[in-house]
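Deliverable D2.4 — example input (structure tokens):
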């Protein structure tokens, strides 16, 4: 049986990161934990995928980063959703929902 976390569609990781930052700023480990929590432990994001995505999202202006202190008293970069990031989250969520419906039609033979 294939592992759903191994083959995330391109762009899906961006959507998951934006969603994980919707409620509050998080550091990298917190983002990974939030995605795992929201997916009921079905998705795990590896650091090798996470940090390039965070840098890309920051370059696009959808998130911003600031240094802070984590819950275990360590220096960490905290990421926050920007106003344009909130708009992008809405756009990507809508696109994902339409894609999901279309894929379900195909899978059900409709």
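Example output (designed residues):
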């Amino acid at each position: 049986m294939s592992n759903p976390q191994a083959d995330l569609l391109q762009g899906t990781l961006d959507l998951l990161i934006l969603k994980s930052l919707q409620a509050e700023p998080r550091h990298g480990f917190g983002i990974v934990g939030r995605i795992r929590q929201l997916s009921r432990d079905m998705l795990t994001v590896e650091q090798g995928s996470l940090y390039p995505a965070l840098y890309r999202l920051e370059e696009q202006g959808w998130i911003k980063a600031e240094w802070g202190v984590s819950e275990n008293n360590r220096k960490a970069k905290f990421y926050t959703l920007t106003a344009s990031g909130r708009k992008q989250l809405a756009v990507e969520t809508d696109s994902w929902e339409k894609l999901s419906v279309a894929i379900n039609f195909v899978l059900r033979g409709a």
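The domain at 4-108 is CATH 1.10.10.10 (Arc Repressor Mutant, subunit A).
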